[in-house]
Structure formats: C-alpha cells, structure tokens
Design brief:
- This protein has three helices and 13 strands.
- The protein is α+β, with helices and mostly antiparallel strands.
- It has a four-stranded antiparallel beta sheet, covered by helices on one side. A three-stranded antiparallel beta sheet has the order 1-6-5. A three-stranded antiparallel beta sheet has the order 2-3-4, covered by helices on one side.
- A hairpin with a 4-residue loop joins strand 8 and strand 9.
- The longest helix has 22 residues.
- It is elongated.
- It starts with a helix and ends in a 14-residue tail after the last strand.
Amino acid sequence: MSRVGKSPIPLPAGVSVSVAPGEVTVSGPKGTLQHRLPKVIAVQQEGDSLVVTRADDERESRALHGLTRALLNNMVTGVHMGYRKDLEIVGVGYRATAKGPGSLELQLGFSHPVSVQAPEGITFEVPSQTAIRVLGIDKQAVGQVAAQIRALRKPEPYKGKGIRYAGEYVRRKAGKAAK
C-alpha cells in the first residue's frame, strides 16, 4: 500500500467535500476546487476525513493512489488557507507596480515595461517595489504563475540581477580577472 495514499486527509472546520462518481469537489472559505478521479481510484468521506483507495495493485494504480491523495490534500489546504509564493526583484532600476489585483507592470531593464495578467483565481500583491506575492487557492496555478514571472528575467550568475524566489540562493561566478 502507498505510504502517502493510505493516510487519511483531515478536513478542517469550514471545508466541505462532495464526492460524485469520477469527481471530487472541495469547498471552503476561500473558494471551490474540482478534481476528476482516475477510474481505478475511489474516495470516501469518513467522518471529518477523506480516505483514498485503489481498485488493484497494478503499477499505474499504485502511482495514481499517492498522487490523487496528495492532490486532494493540496485542494483542502488551498480552500482553507490558500497558497502564496513570494518573489524578489534584484537590480538597479528593476521594479514592480500593481495595476489592480490581477495585473502587474514590471520594469526589468528592457526598453519597455512588461505587463503580466493573472489567470482566473490568482491575485498579485506588491508590498514594495522589489517584492511580489502571488496568491491563490490552486497550488499548481500559483507555482506556475510564479515560475512564469521568474522566467521573464532569471537571476544571472555574475551580478545576481533578475527575479528570484524569496530565499533562493543564486550561485555566483567570478567575473573577468584583471591583468
């Protein structure tokens, strides 16, 4: 049995789950998320927890068992507390400004400003000119949007300029040696 898949998912107060054939819907104070279940996976609600089971011991079923449990746990956490990714901007003249909750304008050393529109369910916060927060209830979407923003100007290894995750270590290289 899968170590991840066999542990039940606790449901915090305020989170409700509805299990339909082939689909699970999780609702909470922050919103609602849905997930389509593979045919070999079943989900039951037992009291204040969810239990994920599989039909057989095939290799694919075992892999989907742990994956589905982890995805459902992320959904429960997302609708209860939400997810957040913090980004830092490093570089002279590099800055971010918020243009509403779903839009960012970035100055990244290009000849033009770069605009970023948030997909549905994602919001941006700009606590300072060099910090960006990506917020949402879907863990995968928050991480994807943060990665797309980081890809606009990855940290370079010589001066460390660019967009990086909060707390990310950028390995530096030595520049040219003087004669």
